[in-house]
Every structure is written in C-alpha cells, then in structure tokens.
Amino acid sequence: MRTKSLLTEAKQIERAVTLINLGARLQVLESETDMSYERLLRLYKEVSGKSPSKGQLPFSTDWFMTWQPNIHASLFMNIHEYLNKAAEMDEIDVVIKAYQLYLEQTATQNLEPLLSVTRAWRLVKFVDNGMLTMTKCSKCGGHFVTHPHEISRHFVCGMCNPPARAGKGKAAGGIQMH
Ligand SMILES: [Zn+2]
C-alpha cells in the first residue's frame, strides 16, 4: 500500500514536471494532479524558474475555429485520437504524449507551434463534452475540429479553402473552388 502510494506520488510529480516543461498553466496542473496548490506553485517556480502567469484560462471555443489555429488543433486532435485508440494510457498522459508528437510534427515542418499545451488540454475537454467535434472534410478527407452538427457532406476544411487574406491562396494551393 505504501509502495503504491509512493509510486502514485512519483508519477504525479513526473506528470506535473512534464506539463510545466511543456508550458502548461498552473490550472492544468491543479486539475490533473492531487497535489496541493502550494506544492504545485513551488514546483512550478522550481522547474520553470518563474512565477506562473495569472488570469483566466481560455474558455471559449472561438480560437479553435480560426483558420491557422484550426489546422494546428486538428493536427493535435488527430494524433490524440490515434493514441487514444492505440494505447492504454491515462487521459492526461494521452494529452501529454499527443502534444509532444504535435511539437515534433511542427518542428519537422518548420512551423511555429501555435497550439499551447493548455489549449490542447482545453480542446480535449471541449471534444469530450461535445462543444467541439471532428468532421471529415468533403474535399481532402482529413478530419478537422469543428462545431458539432457540421454536415460533413458540405464541410470544407481550412487547408482546402484558405481565407483570401492568406494571400497567394489560389495560386499557391492550386485550389479552385469553381
Ligand atoms: Zn480539406
């Protein structure tokens, strides 16, 4: 019993440290570990060398619906869903692993990772509670983060239909709508 709780404790600290290193907000740690606020605060300062930023977490789904963030969020969710099916892990460990793979993906493509780990964590919650979902693009067949009830027969993703302000859009992407 004692060994088990020690292991659990070690695992919790490990998770917390990993999340801090990935840049998670303190609220994520509070929600995903049983550690006290004071301990987490101490750990946060120790690991990151600074005080956690204050203020509210992003609670709106809007950010995920804007063009570039949506592509990043969708990339993350595809990895997340794959891991969720493939491996038996605790929910938060799936988020951590998926986020690490997302960072690798963006690095290999020389992209700035627009999705923070805190937003990635929120995104999974939004999908879990049905505020957001994944819909298949009718053009490319990829799965993208959308509001629920999007009709996939009509849905066209942001990669297939970039906004005009993305510039060079039609020429560069070779995408003609009509
Ligand atoms: Zn598409």
UniProtKB/TrEMBL annotation:
Any one Gene Ontology BP term: bacterial-type flagellum organization
Pfam families for the chain: FlhC (PF05280)
GO molecular function (one): zinc ion binding
Segments traversing the membrane: none
Lineage: superkingdom: Bacteria
Function field: Functions in complex with FlhD as a master transcriptional regulator that regulates transcription of several flagellar and non-flagellar operons by binding to their promoter region. Activates expression of class 2 flagellar genes, including fliA, which is a flagellum-specific sigma factor that turns on the class 3 genes. Also regulates genes whose products function in a variety of physiological pathways.
NCBIfam families: PRK12722.1 (NF009365)
Name this protein carries in UniProt: Flagellar transcriptional regulator FlhC
Organism of provenance: Aquabacterium olei
